Amino acid sequence: MKMPDSFLWGGATAANQCEGAYLEDGRGLSTVDVVPYGPDRMKVARGVMKMLECDSEHTYPAHEAIDMYHHYKEDIAMFAEMGFKVYRLSISWTRILPHGDDDVPNEAGIQFYSDLFDECLKHGIEPLVTICHFDTPIDLINRYGGWKDRRMVDAFVKYCTVLFERFGSKVKYWLTFNEINMLLHMPFMGAGILFEDGENEEQIKYQAAHHELLASAKAVSLAHRMMPEAKLGCMLAAGQFYPYSCSPTDVYKAMECDRDNYFFIDVQVRGEYPVWAFKRMEKAGVKIRMDPGDAEILKEGTVDFVSFSYYSSRCISSDPEVIKNKSRGNAVISAVVNPYLESSEWGWQIDPLGLRVTLNMLYDRYQKPLFIVENGLGAVDRVEEDGSIHDLYRISYMREHIKAMLSAVNEDGIPLMGYTCWGCIDLVSASTGEMKKRYGMIYVDKQDDGSGDLKRIRKDSFYWYKKVIETGGEDLE
After folding, report:
1. Alpha carbons 322 and 453: distance in angstroms, whole number
2. Scanning 323, 360, 468, 474, which has its CA 20 to 30 A from the CA of 300?
3. Active-site entry in 374, 384, 411, 470
4. Selection from 16, 59, 19 nearest residue 454 by Cα
5. Alpha-carbon distance values, 128 to 11, 133, 262 (Å)
6. Rounded to whole angstroms, what are the CA distances from 227 to 161, 166, 167, 220, 383?
């Protein structure tokens, strides 16, 4: 089995995890800049610990990251050597609009991305751009409270207008928000939300969700007007929920969790809220404030394709004793350990068949083209004395997931646009803030303590993935 020649093979990164240069050339401060490494990381990411500036008591690896800001030509050349047809990246909002809604964009930031896109196109690589990847300008949080406030919609549209005007001739594929459903699990990282004592947190999260959904719809409509040939997608953290047992209560619990996970995408694809969502919100004491015309905005701004990250399936139970044995995958705190699956060093369970299940479930639900924009294994890599890195565990993980993807396309008929593995080059982990949790096929000499000369080294997986792309997935050995 193999993929058609038009299939977009590539890799994915996020600005806040690889660029570094966090205050260079006029860039403003963003949420991702103030989320520290260490035990306070998830407290800040979830909005329960307030941190709107950096301090001397914490470390922030993303400030330098792998310094792609100054190494992008070298990095893109290595992507081209692997045979990439597409490179998924994100734009740093505050590198374009330092305060989030400036009337005049930062020309140094514009120039950086323009040069980066030119470098991609020179090598025959299509940019796939995430407009907002866990990235809310701090100044908008100070003034508006982040996505709690409807004024964020206008700020986002202003930002998108600049991107489409300046880069519309260079970029065909766009995603509005990265893992938009993570707003419910990491409100500060996902939407710049901080909670005060006594607030109805569910009300705040779902109101912020409404604002992001409006912003996404407006961006899609704007893009279709300004760039008629462009394709706009949504993006979620995916992974099917399995019932822990065949107990009907476990089956129903898994269905509820899937619905929660697909809530945002239901709106972005169908242009309206699902009926169950209103009942769920009513039960939680949530009533979304909607302005006249909101329903029409959502209906007119539906996406062209559905993209998603997949690292693992999830398992859930209705039994309070069972759910004590929680897994540690991708901030979904309610998932439990699936006894039939192995786990990575960080407790993420490995389920290649789950990718095929997820592809089928997503297409059955939406009938839109799909795009796998994140899939990979975080692991500790060892550099041998001769400089080689034998990451056979990563090759094994990717091989089995690509096999499942091939089966979904060739045997199930799923229309799949492309596959961008996460992250094609080592970068700062979003979940833990570590460098030692490496995903890349290119090693970067940067350690958790800040040491390292940033040298790039090809891992064994680099050469393996190059062969996979050359053969359209036919040769996976």
Report:
1. 46
2. 360
3. 374
4. 19
5. 10, 13, 22
6. 11, 11, 10, 10, 45
Concatenating the DSSP letter of every residue in 226-278 gives: H-TT-EEEEEEEE-PEEESSS-HHHHHHHHHHHHHHHHHHHHHHHSS--HHHH
Q: Name the CATH topology of 8-237+261-309+347-470.
A: TIM Barrel (3.20.20)
Determine which helix (DSSP H) or strand (DSSP E) holds 418, and give its type and residue range: strand 416-422
Q: How far apart are CA 27 and CA 463, in angstroms?
A: 36
pTM score:
0.96
Q: How far apart are CA 292 and CA 288, in angstroms?
A: 13
Strands (E), 281-339: 305-310, 314-316
pLDDT tens, the chain, 477 aa long: 899 999 999 999 999 999 999 999 999 999 999 999 999 999 999 988 999 999 999 999 999 999 999 999 999 999 999 999 999 999 999 999 999 999 999 999 999 999 999 999 999 999 999 999 999 999 999 999 999 999 999 999 999 999 999 999 999 999 999 999 999 889 999 999 999 888 899 999 999 999 999 999 999 999 999 999 999 999 999 999 999 999 999 999 999 999 989 999 999 999 999 999 999 889 889 999 999 999 999 999 999 999 999 999 999 999 988 887 777 665 555 689 999 999 988 888 999 999 999 999 999 999 999 999 999 999 999 999 999 999 999 999 999 999 999 999 999 999 999 999 998 999 999 988 999 999 999 999 999 989 999 999 999 999 999 999 999 999 999
Residues 374, 427 contacting (CB under 8 angstroms): no
Which residues are within 8 A (CB) of 366 and not within 5 positions of it... i.e. 6 or more apart?
A: 265, 269, 270, 306
Find residue 241's DSSP bridge partners. Answer: 314
Residue 215 has which token pair?
């912003």
Q: Quote the tokens at residue 475.
A: 């040769």
Q: Look-up: residue for tokens 């089956």?
A: 251
208: Cα within 13 Å, side-chain hemisphere? 29
Q: Is the alpha carbon torsion for 87, 186, 359, 334 positive or negative?
A: positive
Phi/psi for 191 (5° steps) reads: -150, 10
Look at strands 231-238 and 305-310 and give their pairing: parallel
* SS3 at position 106: coil
**146 dihedral zone (left: phi>0; alpha: psi -120 to 50; beta):** left
What SS3 class is residue 219?
helix
Going by C-alpha positions, the residue among 390, 227, 420, 253 that lies closest to residue 322 is 253
Indicate if 374 belongs to the active site.
Answer: yes
* Residue partners of 202: CB distance under 8 A and separation at least 6: 281, 284, 285, 286
